[in-house]
Design goal:
Keywords: Disulfide bond, Hydrolase, Protease, Serine protease, Signal, Zymogen. The chain is mainly beta. It has helices at residues 165-172, 232-245; strands spanning 4-6, 20-21, 30-37, 40-50, 53-56, 64-69, 82-86, 89-91, 105-108, 136-141, 156-162, 181-185, 201-204, 207-216, 223-227. The protein is built from two helices and 15 strands.
Length: 250
């Protein structure tokens, strides 16, 4: 079996490998997750899909999660920032921490986010909608800039190409599931997501088709993303439950 690890959050914030700084607030759906655990504070990405919901990777879950929207720099004061202490989240019931199958999580925001020019939602694909191999997609995050912990405080972005399923099946064997995962990356090994980018969106044709999930320990190509369209019915049902929780008692 191939030795794989999730693109786990770390305590040192960094950035996308081989990318560039994003134009400030050009990705208003991005969410910065500050995560507290026994080993200290870590970070992940996420993205706003509803005024009361952020989508991220299940392997980012911890007891103490703070979500900040409207962020470009995680260190500077920005009037656009909206911060939420998360008390309720839902992990997919079939999530596996061993194989990272079904690596998807929904976080409930309370109160709701205030939608502005710098805080807005990203559209999701239809159920089982697919992107073709060769499609160029964008990923953004605050993860490492290289395989060593070079760091920055600003949002970085990179273009990655959707690869054929065969590439990830060959690389990750039975851990790669065609129905629920997307194979992506840069064949030249110069551009990638890295630690701290987990949970962020893979945006293709204006929709969040993937969630940063995992890759090999010592190689940056290829990377595996959770396929959002496969989970669209589950996401829709959990959003409905979130809405019902806020209804006044009858």
């Amino acid at each position: 079996m191939a030795h794989v690890i999730p693109t786990l959050p770390i305590s040192l914030p960094g950035r996308i490998i081989g990318g560039q700084e994003a134009q400030p607030h050009s990705r208003p759906y991005m969410a910065y997750l500050s995560i507290g655990s026994e080993s200290g504070r870590h970070q992940c990405g996420g993205f706003l899909i509803h005024p009361y919901a952020v989508l991220s990777a299940a392997h980012c879950v911890a007891v103490n999660i703070t979500v900040t929207l409207g962020v470009h720099s995680i260190e500077k004061e920005e009037r656009s920032k909206q911060k939420f202490h998360i008390s309720h989240w839902v992990i997919h019931p079939n999530y596996s921490g061993d194989t990272l199958a079904n690596d998807i999580m929904l976080l409930k925001l309370k109160p709701k986010a205030k939608l502005t020019k710098r805080v807005s939602r990203v559209p999701l694909p239809r159920h089982n909608e697919r992107v073709k191999p060769g499609t160029i997609c964008k990923v953004a995050g605050w993860g490492w800039t290289s395989t060593t912990p070079d760091k920055t405080s600003v949002l970085m972005e990179v273009d990655l190409k959707v690869q054929s399923e065969d590439i990830c099946e060959k690389s990750f064997k039975r851990n790669y599931l065609r129905e629920s995962m997307i194979c992506c990356g840069d064949e030249d090994g110069k551009k990638s997501t890295s630690r701290g980018d987990s949970g962020g969106p893979l945006v293709c044709n204006g929709k969040a088709h993937g969630i940063v999930s995992y890759g090999h320990r010592n190689r940056i190509f290829p990377k595996v993303f959770t396929r959002v369209s496969y989970f669209e019915p589950w996401v829709r049902e959990e959003l409905r439950k979130f809405a019902l929780q806020d209804l006044p008692d009858s």
